Amino acid sequence: MTERLNVTTSTGEGAAFEPGGDFTVQVEAEYAGALFDVLGRVDAAASWLLLGTLQPADRFARFADIPFAKIAVRENIAGKSAKAWTSV
Question: How far, in Å, are 12, 13, 16, 35, 68 from residue 56 at the CA level?
């Protein structure tokens, strides 16, 4: 799995990536209230749109192929770790 996000801030955003097929996201956070947004877009000039939101209790979610994706975290507590990985 590829680490896409690793922060200890209340909000954060990983770099964009090109999945190249269906992909799975795994999330982990010290604070159970952290929210992980999986964002996608079909073109580099298009706006980022929400594909889904995961909580640490969800652990995994599968997403269909999209040209560009990224993962962001919000509502984390500063100083608590929040991490996300993908299968690609």
Answer: 15, 16, 21, 7, 23
What's phi and psi for 2, nearest 5 deg?
Answer: -105, 125
Which residues, listed in sequence order, are joined to residue 29 by a DSSP beta bridge? 82
C-alpha–C-alpha distance, residues 71 and 22, integer Å: 15
- Please write the tens of the pLDDT for every residue from 37-51: 999 999 999 999 999
Q: Specify the residue for token string 């996300």.
A: 84
45 CB contacts (<8 Å, ≥6 apart)? none
The model's pTM is: 0.96
